[in-house]
Design goal:
Layout: H1 18-21, H2 25-28, H3 35-40, H4 48-57, H5 68-105, E1 107-109, E2 131-138, H6 144-149, E3 162-170, E4 177-181, E5 187-190, E6 193-194, E7 201-202, E8 205-208, H7 217-228, E9 234-238, H8 240-250, E10 253-257, E11 261-262, E12 276-277, E13 280-284, H9 286-294, H10 302-322, H11 329-342, E14 343-346, H12 352-363, E15 370-374, E16 377-379, E17 388-390, H13 394-403, H14 410-421, E18 435-438, H15 451-461, E19 468-469, E20 480-484, H16 488-501, E21 509-512, E22 519-522, E23 549-550
Parallel strand pairs: 1-14, 2-9, 4-15, 18-19, 18-22, 20-21
Antiparallel strand pairs: 2-3, 3-4, 5-8, 6-7, 9-14, 10-13, 11-12, 15-23, 16-17, 20-22
Helix pairs in contact: 5-11, 8-9, 8-11, 9-10
């Protein structure tokens, strides 16, 4: 954006030294410090410095002085100089006021509701850490503008639901990125939260993930962290009106349908987005973009809707790159104005500069290394027609990939697997000191007394004779083995050997910042028993059965469910 005019963003424009601007004696004066005053004085018989100079310049002739043209020129130059100074100062002031205006547009909230359950990954050798941002789409109708775009008057005043939830993961080296959606009807554990606006308190519950927004965006972030154990740096939230405004600011995005689509109410299936498109490609923006993002019935399910949303986001990124929006100051100003009005963000990124810096994190990620998908899932036994659960094994491995900052690109994953296989071997069990922590209280129940000692003895029986217990209680929804960042590949190999000895999946192994050694935290999923609870085989592919979309593909088209193909 060039030199910034904002505090903390480089040097504010300022008036340079007069000499640098040309306010020097050579322009305005003939040698003394007040030539204009001298020029205004009548000749006094050639007396004084000014008169002597004038007399000399006229060869001693008397008559009307000839200083007026030069005096006029001086005044013009002085006016230009002062105008330039005013312009520079005015530009700086305007830039500062514009910056403050944008900052005042932003609505901010607390990052977490206080029940986050993940640890930030330690920096790599270059000092970089992964970037994780939770993107939330609110279905709020609590404004006239939002109500006009969807919903009924009866919905006004209701607690908004987080009907769209996506986690944007950008790798520490900024060479790849992933977007993972969790369907809105996924049943998960929602931690206790207090809504920061209403101060209403909500107890921990097992419910549908879109209900987590009742405790504010920070509660939705805590829910994600509890489920995935992925540390989430920030959240951003947008409502219906914000989607429309952002779509217009970008200038639209290309989408495609394989058949004609008309998403309207059907017998027994009320509602509909009212998306109406003919077969083929279309560039959509404004309300049409919102209709596309909301379409569920015509794309058969929430999973189809997630795929359509991913296709739209990929198209937006392609548009921004083709417009040079990351480097074009004019485009950035326009987008910044719209974004600050449309978005609500967590407070630690609540300035234009920080949002700009975040945008720059995506600038150099190759589109072919941008992968988007929906969480692997299974029908919820309690309500298989309406709700889903994360697919055991596959979903766990997906979260493990994100925690380990691994690319979702199949080729990249294959290379990473070879690197691990060629890495160091685990140390002998008897040489490894393992600290066992009782974390069985994470489900809100009292911790199982003596649980750490029981699991410690199990490890000793497996040859880990240096295993010992911690005197402090922990809290973990699921059992995990952690190793410090400084231990590197050797630490991971050692942790995997502990997990394998107890029959735990590889996805239960994760790296933590330095400060603790090899640690086994027994979670609330293993409160009793001498055998780790089995779910499914750990060889489930995390991308299996998902709607994966790659950022470089421009020929993706959505299938339209047959009842919605009539125009």
């Amino acid at each position: 954006m060039g030199r910034s005019s904002t505090p903390g963003e480089g040097t504010r424009p300022r008036v340079r030294h007069a000499g640098q601007l040309g306010w020097d004696d050579g322009i305005y004066e003939d040698g003394d410090g007040d030539s204009d005053k001298d020029a205004a004085k009548p000749d006094a018989g050639g007396g004084g410095d000014g008169g002597g100079r004038r007399a000399a310049s006229r060869g001693g002739r008397r008559g009307r002085p000839r200083r007026a043209p030069k005096k006029k020129k001086h005044r013009v130059l002085r006016w230009i100089a002062f105008s330039l100074a005013f312009l520079i100062l005015g530009t700086g002031a305007a830039g500062y006021l514009w910056y403050e205006h944008l900052n005042s547009n932003l609505r901010k909230g607390e990052r977490s509701a206080g029940n986050g359950a993940a640890k930030k990954k330690a920096p790599n050798a270059a000092g970089q850490t992964p970037l994780n941002i939770l993107l939330i789409g609110s279905d709020s109708r609590n404004s006239a503008e939002n109500l006009k775009l969807g919903g009924s008057k009866e919905s006004v005043g209701n607690t908004p639901l987080a009907d769209v939830q996506m986690l944007l993961h950008v790798s520490a080296d900024r060479k790849n990125a992933s977007v993972i959606s969790i369907p809105r009807d996924t049943r998960v554990d929602i931690p206790a939260c207090e809504n920061p606006d209403t101060h209403k308190k909500y107890a921990a519950t097992n419910g549908i993930i879109n209900e987590s927004l009742r405790g504010g965006p920070g509660c939705t972030l805590d829910t994600w962290e509890q489920l995935t154990k992925v540390y989430i740096d920030h959240w951003m939230m947008v409502d219906f009106a914000g989607v429309v405004d952002m779509a217009d600011a970008v200038g639209g995005a290309w989408v495609c349908v394989k058949q004609d689509v008309n998403d309207v109410s059907k017998p027994g299936v009320p509602g509909g987005s009212h998306l109406r498109l003919t077969k083929g490609k279309h560039k959509i923006k404004g309300e049409d973009a919102l209709k596309w993002l909301r379409t569920r019935h015509a794309f058969e399910s929430d999973f189809g809707r997630s795929k359509a949303q991913h296709m739209y986001l990929n198209s937006v990124l392609r548009e921004l790159k083709s417009q040079n929006a990351f480097t074009d100051t004019g485009r950035l100003m326009n987008l910044a104005e719209t974004a600050t009005k449309s978005l609500q963000v967590s407070e630690e990124i609540g300035t234009v500069k920080k949002l700009f810096d975040l945008g720059m994190q995506l600038k150099d990620v190759p589109l072919e290394k941008m992968n988007m998908l929906t969480m692997p899932r299974i029908p919820d036994p309690k309500n298989p027609e309406a709700h889903v659960l994360p697919k055991p094994g596959a979903a766990d491995k997906l979260w493990a990939l994100l925690r380990d900052d691994q690319s979702l690109d199949p080729d990249d994953r294959a290379k990473a697997a070879k690197k691990v296989a060629a890495g160091p071997k685990a140390g002998a069990p008897a040489s490894l000191g393992v600290t066992v922590v009782n974390g069985t209280s994470a489900d809100g129940q009292a911790a199982t007394e003596g649980r750490a000692g029981v699991v410690r003895d199990m490890l000793k029986a497996k040859g880990f004779t240096e295993a010992d217990t911690s005197t402090e209680l922990g809290s973990a929804p699921t059992t995990e083995v952690t190793y410090p960042h400084s231990a590197g590949a050797q630490g991971k190999a050692d942790a995997l050997s502990v997990a394998k000895a107890l029959g735990m999946p590889t996805s239960a192994v994760t790296e933590t910042p330095d400060g603790a050694g090899l640690t086994l935290t027994v979670g609330s999923d293993w409160r009793t028993g001498s055998t780790f609870p089995k779910t499914v085989e750990d060889d489930s592919d995390p991308l299996e059965g998902t709607e994966s979309v790659n950022g470089a593909k421009t020929d993706d088209c959505m299938d339209v469910y047959w009842p919605y193909r009539q125009m």
